[in-house]
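haha ok so turns out i had the wrong file open the whole time. this is the CORRECT one, sorry everyone. sequence first:
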Amino acid sequence: IAFVKHSTLRDYNGPNLNTAKNQYVGICPTKEDGSSGGCMTLFDAAGNPIKDGDQFRYEKCSTGKSASNAMVSSRGFVETEEYTKLMTALGLNNNEVANVATSTPSVTAEETVGVWGSDTKQLRKIANPATTTGFKEFFTAYDQFREIRNSEFANNNNKDEVKVCVPRNDDSELVRRCTDVMNVQYGTSELYFNCMAASSVEACQQGIKDGTYDITTLGGNGLYTSYEEFELEPLVAEIYITGEPASYFGIGVVKASQCGNGLTFTGKNTASLQGKDSCHTGYRKTAGWFLPVGSLLSEGIIPEAVQSENGDVRTDASTVADFFGRVCAPRATDDGPKVNGEIWEPLCELCKESGGSDPCAANPTQEVNPYYDYTGAFKCMKEGSDDAPRVGWVKHTTLDDYNRQFPSDRQSVADYAILCTDGCRAWTEENYKDPKCNNGESASQAVIARAGYESSSVGGKVKTALLNGGNVKLAAIEIAGQENFFWSASTDEVRDVSSQAFEDDFFQAYSEFKSVFNLPQGGSPDAKGSVDVEYTISFANNRPLNEALEDSIEEDIEEEARKACDAAGTACPDADFDGDVTCTADCENSSRRSLLATQVKASGTVKNVVVNNDVSNSMKQVSSLGGGTVDQDQTKVNDSSSASMARMGLGGCIALVLGVLVAMA
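then structure:
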C-alpha cells in the first residue's frame, strides 16, 4: 500500500510500470456499488481520474484534503508595495486565478528552479493570507498537522508539565498557539509546556505563587509587584542589544522636522512641551508613564502637581492632563486613573484620533486601539501634524519594533529626534544612553516563577530550555501577534538573571520604586485624608457614660490612629476624632451625665491621617477603648480629600518622589 496524493498515479511514468493504471485501486470506505468497505478503481487505463456524477472517486476515498505547495513570505509582506507588484507580475492583482507561464520551462521545472511544482497548471491567490482564519481556509488539514506535531510533545507520565500563564482569558487562539509554539520551540523529551489563560496579570501572579501556574513573562510594574507582593523571582530576562544589560531606556521622541531652535519643540523643557499633544504607551506603564512623568516632575518641567476638583482622579492623571494638550494614555488599573480603578476620558481624548473602536482600551489591535502600547504611542506621535504636533513617550527600541510590525509603513530614524534637556538630538545609542536624553532606565521584561522554582529539578530544566544558549526563539516572539508575549519583538537574546539580587541589581530602581509604591494614596507625607470608624464597646461593670469617659474613648481612638499610622510607616501626630459616643443598651435613665451602659457606640471620622489601607487594617486590631472591650469594629479609608498619587513608580522613581514633594509643598 502506498499513501500518495490524488495526482500521483496519473503523473507517474517511471520504470517498471508494466500494468495499466486502472489495475491500481484505492482503499475506500465503500465499494463501487456503494456497499460498505472495499476497494475502488480511481483511474482509467491512461491514468485519468474517474468521476461518479459530479464527484471524482478519489474524493470519496481520500484520507483528507491538504493544501498544495505555496509561496510564503514574512509577516506583513502583504501590506507592502512589493506584494502588489508581485501579484501583478503573476497575473493575480485583479484576478483570483491565473495560468502558469508554461512557455518558460524554467519556471515550471521544479527540479531546476523550485518555484512551482512540475504539475502546476494554475496559481490561486489566497484570501486574507495574513490572518489565522485565512491560513486555515487555505491549509484545510491544519488540525491534522497540529495533532501530529503535538503528539511529539504530548504530556505523559514521563514528562514534567510546565504551566505557562497567559494573562488574557478572552483570547483562546493566543492560548492555543502558545501551547503549540512553546512545545515546538522549547519542548523536550522531559518537558511539556501547557499554556493556560488567566483573567489578569494579578491572577497570573497569585496563581504562580499558589502553584496553579509555573511561569509567565512580565515587565515594569508587573516585575516589581511580582517580587514585592507575591514573592516571585525572575529566571530569564530579555536583552535588547547583544552584550548589553537586561534593561531599556525610556525616551521622548518627536518629528525631527519639528524639533530645533525656533521650531515647535526645542528640547525637554516646559515651554517646548506644555500644551502639546502627548502620546503615552498606557496609563501607569513604565516607559510611557512612570519614567517620563517622574522625570518631568523632578526636573521641574511640569511645574506643579494638580489635583482633581472632587478628588475622584489620581493626581498623576490630572497633572498630566492639565500640563499637556490632548493626551492618549489608555487603559485602567486597580489604582486608576480614577480612584475607583475606572478609565478617565481626558486620558483617552487623543486616542480617538486613531479611528479605533475603543480609544480607552488596553488592546493594541488596529481595529480596537492602535495607539496603545509602545508602537501605538509611536504611531500616535507620527500621525501628528505641524498644526497639532505630538510627543511620544516610548523606549529606545520602539522604532525598530514599529518597522518590524508595520513593514509597509517603514520609518527612517533620520525623521525623528530625541528630546534632551539641552535640545534635540538624533535617535542614536550614544544619545539615548545619555542621562540628558532619557527619562530613566528600567529592568527588561523577564520570565518569572515562584521562589525556589529555579533550584528545583523541573525549574532548572525549564530555565535551561528557555535560555537556549542565549539565543531567542523567533517563533516565540509575539505569539499570535500578541505584543510582548512570550518574548517582546525587540529581544536580541536572553540571559539568566536567577542569581542576581532583585533589589538594586536586576531591578535597578528598586529602592526608589519601593519608596514611591509605599506612598499613601495622598501622594506625600503631607497629604492628609480620613478614616471612618465605628466601634461597639462593652463594659463589664456598667461604666457611667459621662464626659470623662467620652473624652477617654475619643483620645483612645486618636491614639489608635497614630499607632496605625506608625505601623504603616507614616506619621499622624495631629489625628483628630470627630464623631459621637453614645449609649446603645441598658440605659438606666435619660440623664445624659449619669447614664450607665453595658454597651457604647463610638462612630465618626478620624481626620488628619495619612490615608492608607494599612492604617484602616491596623485600626481594626483595636482590643479596648476607654477601658471597655471592643466587640465589633468597622473602619474604612476615605481618601476623597487626599492628593492621590499612590503606587507610582519604576525607574527614575526617586525623581518622581522629589518632584511630588516639591510640587505639593
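The two ends are 87 Å apart (CA to CA).
again sry for the mixup
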